[in-house]
Amino acid sequence: MSKKRAGSSSRGIxxxxxxxxxxxxxxxxxxxxxxxxxxxVKKTLTIPVIGEITEYLVGNxxxxxEAKLIVASKEAKTKKKKKNTTExxxxxxxYGVLPEAExxxxxxxxxxxxxxxxxxxxxxxxxxxxxxxxTLAEVGISHMAAESNTYTFNSGAQYTFDTYLxxxxxxxxxxxxxxxxxxxxxxxxxxxxxxxxxxxxxxKCPQSAIVVQSIWPVREGYVSTNGITNAAIDYYNDFLKRxxxxxxxYYLDTSSVLKDEYNQMKEEYNAGDGLHYGQLGYEAAxxxxxxxxxxxxxxx
Length: 300
Prior knowledge:
The chain has helices at residues 2-36, 38-45, 50-58, 64-81, 86-89, 119-126, 143-146, 161-168, 187-204, 230-247, 279-291, and strands at 96-97, 113-117, 135-137, 150-152, 158-160, 172-176, 209-213, 250-252. It is α/β, with parallel strands linked by helices. The protein folds into 2 domains: 2-80; 87-291, Rossmann fold (3-Layer(aba) Sandwich). The strands form 2 sheets. Strands 1-8-7-6-2-3 form a 6-stranded parallel sheet, with helices on both faces. A two-stranded antiparallel ribbon has the order 4-5. Helix 6 (119-126) links the parallel strand 2 and strand 3. Helix 2 packs across helix 3. Residues 61-93 have low confidence and may be disordered.
């Protein structure tokens, strides 16, 4: 028993000695550095606590302008790190309608996004703009049925609305419903159910930027668009824009680039039924998304 204790005590002493030696070497290197290297001195001046010691020993080698730049840089990094919740994401940027960016993003931006929607979102996968795993969508679904639906992927995986968002919410979540159910007679219920869905997504994705995409226009006069009018779409888009402003989330006015001068879906975007879009339509819509990205997401 005594031998074991002696061995343990010896190992403890060795550990203390090694730690003390390392500490002394670090101090020695620090002293040599501040004595012979101006670059090293400037570097240590930017480190909390150590910078104060260095300044006390050798003075501050930065000019007043350089010091201001260092402080500004630290503050900017601190603000960026604080963007952890939905509320904080919008703290420093204007919410509501997403403005056009100075430069168009590449498609790399889309890899940071999740899309919730109907057949128009399904087609984004079919045309190769996003991976199926980035979307929770089904042909013909409305915002009133989205939350209670069970979704089956081509891989065989199944998700509910909640389980999908638990594991697949990216930095940006786009909500893109509305055309299915546009002719629903109860206007108030249509709006209240959409607002409830938005609240649901915000609650499930507190660290994501939420973007509500405008309802895309149709080309009236087809069997598929019977009862669906662009006037009704415009009415609900105005509602969605107000909701986004009230909730301090983003609104993407994609419909603006898809309309002609008669407030209809542009003929060249028509897939043939007045309701769905062809390849040219998706090129325009995705291009609009990339020209109006959420700030600070993806490539700059």
